[in-house]
Design a protein that fits this description.
Layout: H1 7-22, H2 34-47, H3 54-72, H4 83-94, H5 98-104, H6 113-130, H7 134-145, H8 149-153, H9 174-185, H10 193-203, H11 207-210, E1 213-217, E2 224-227, H12 243-257, E3 265-269, H13 275-286, E4 291-295, H14 304-311, E5 317-322, H15 334-342, E6 352-358, H16 368-372, H17 380-389, E7 396-400, H18 405-419, H19 425-438, H20 444-464
Parallel strand pairs: 1-4, 3-6, 3-7, 4-5, 5-6
Antiparallel strand pairs: 1-2
Helix pairs in contact: 1-2, 1-6, 1-7, 2-3, 3-7, 4-9, 5-10, 18-19, 18-20
């Protein structure tokens, strides 16, 4: 609680915090998280020549409180202090700036003396912000409005320190939890600059630290990366019946992660055979080794140069994932794909590969007229060769075929064992074949759909007998 009694003392604390916010050089310079932005607006309202407009100050506080509540009340993670202090520290550890990116590129977090000095200065400014309490803002407004003791007790400025998460789940990363504790108890944040640099070296920074899967989203500025908080949890062990295809893809991906030469890959074959699932499973297998998966829709292929610019020079290694890739006769954006596969004047970053899935071996339609050269185009053969060569530009093509009946049943049996389905073997086979005949035939996808149905039926039967 704030023990100062004069409006001048309260106002000086707020003005000091406002100056600290405006003097930040590196941290939160590129993109300020909503909670940091809201704190800046709050300090602006409370500390510019005193409170000029009580309603504006009250509105700024309410907006700040709302941002805190939205972040804290529905989460299930431990708080490292109150709501504001927790979110500020978490934003600090994830911030994308020159210091964090430079530290992330060095095994020991080394940066230049000038960059280190600027970071130390910023950390001391951020510590001033960290020490802010809701009672300081309530005291400032109370003294400005000359509230009585009863009016102060009924203040519309609700204390943010009383916000609570859904559950206090302990942090999953012990090293990060210890660093948060160090910041929470340190007398001088500037002295922790080396520890923070080492954290960035170990964990990375920015969007690529917070997420492991992304999608490219088109917008008025050309597009941006959007993190996917809950990527598909499928694992390589879930992929039964395509072990040889998986072996080829894993070998190429291992080479890529090791920094060795690796190829772009086209996964081609029948629907429901596990092509997309296999690419998604790579993320869950290799995320801890720095692999990131970025999904790009076919209609966004023209954004590839912008995407590659964002990814170049990062410590992480990225697979650009284009699902269900094929082109119709009148589409020309396949030329954007060619530039990524073979490179133009600017080479593709060494930390980026392209994995695409398709139901077509040749990504562009080929007509008999292309072969007979009766097309009215003068150089029709050249156009035909351009179409046919597109899939050849992938270094590796992996073919996925639908299983036969026994292969389908083997997938069903493997998934049943893995997921805990306890039906008798004969019942399992009979019901699986009935499912395939009624729905999607023999495929890995059909097998998984059947197992999900069977697990649900098993759960209902168990509940009925309780």
């Amino acid at each position: 609680m704030i023990e100062t009694t004069s409006l001048a003392e309260v106002q000086e604390r707020l003005s000091e915090a406002h100056r600290a916010y405006r003097r930040l050089i590196l941290f939160f310079a590129t993109e300020r998280p909503p909670v940091v932005e809201a704190m800046g607006d709050l300090l602006e309202a409370f500390s510019t020549n005193g409170i000029a407009d009580s309603e504006a100050a009250l509105g700024a506080y309410q907006r700040f409180f709302r941002v805190l509540a939205e972040e804290i009340e529905l989460r299930e993670r431990h708080l490292a202090g109150d709501a504001w202090r927790t979110l500020l520290l978490e934003a600090l550890l994830a911030d994308e700036n020159t210091f964090s990116r430079k530290a992330a590129l060095s095994p020991s977090g080394e940066v230049s003396p000038a960059l280190r000095a600027a970071a130390e200065q910023d950390l001391r400014h951020l510590q001033v912000l960290y020490r802010l309490e809701s009672s300081l803002f309530r005291a400032a407004l109370a003294r400005r409005e000359r509230w009585s003791a009863s009016e102060q007790a009924a203040s519309p400025l609700v204390a943010w320190e009383d916000l609570r998460p859904l559950a206090e789940v302990p942090p999953g990363n012990p090293e990060e939890a210890e660093l948060l504790r160090q910041f929470a108890t340190a007398g001088d944040w500037g002295a922790l600059v080396g520890d923070l640099a080492l954290h960035y070296a170990r964990s990375g920074s920015g969007l690529f630290r917070r997420y492991r899967a992304f999608r490219w989203v088109s917008d008025a500025t050309g597009g941006h990366l959007e993190g996917i908080a809950h990527p598909d949890p499928i694992s390589l062990e879930d992929l039964i019946g395509c072990e040889e295809e998986c072996r080829v893809l894993l070998r190429n991906t291992e080479q890529f992660l090791a920094g060795s030469p690796a190829n772009n890959v086209l996964l081609y074959g029948d629907r429901g055979t596990g092509k997309s699932s296999m690419v998604k499973a790579l993320l869950n297998a290799y995320a801890e080794r720095g692999l990131r998966l970025l999904e790009v829709q076919k209609q966004h292929l023209s954004a590839f140069p912008r995407i590659l610019k964002l990814l170049r020079g990062r410590r992480e290694r990225f697979i650009l994932f284009v699902d269900d890739l094929s082109f119709e006769e009148n589409e020309t954006n396949y030329k954007d794909l060619k530039a990524v596969l073979e490179g133009g004047l600017e080479t593709r970053p060494e930390n980026v590969l392209l994995y695409a899935t398709s139901n077509r071996r040749h990504l562009l339609p080929e007509r008999f007229s292309d072969r007979d050269h009766v097309d009215p185009e003068i150089h029709a053969r050249d156009t035909s060769q351009e179409k046919l060569s597109l899939s050849d530009r992938f270094g590796i093509t992996i073919t996925f075929l639908s299983p036969d009946q026994e292969g389908y049943l083997a997938i069903v049996e493997g998934l049943a064992k893995r997921l805990g389905l306890e039906w008798p073997a004969e019942t399992l086979r009979r019901r699986a074949l009935q499912w395939a005949a009624r729905y999607n035939g023999w495929s890995g996808r059909s097998a998984r759909q059947f197992i999900h149905f069977a697990l649900g039926e098993q759960a209902l039967e168990a509940a009925a007998h309780r």
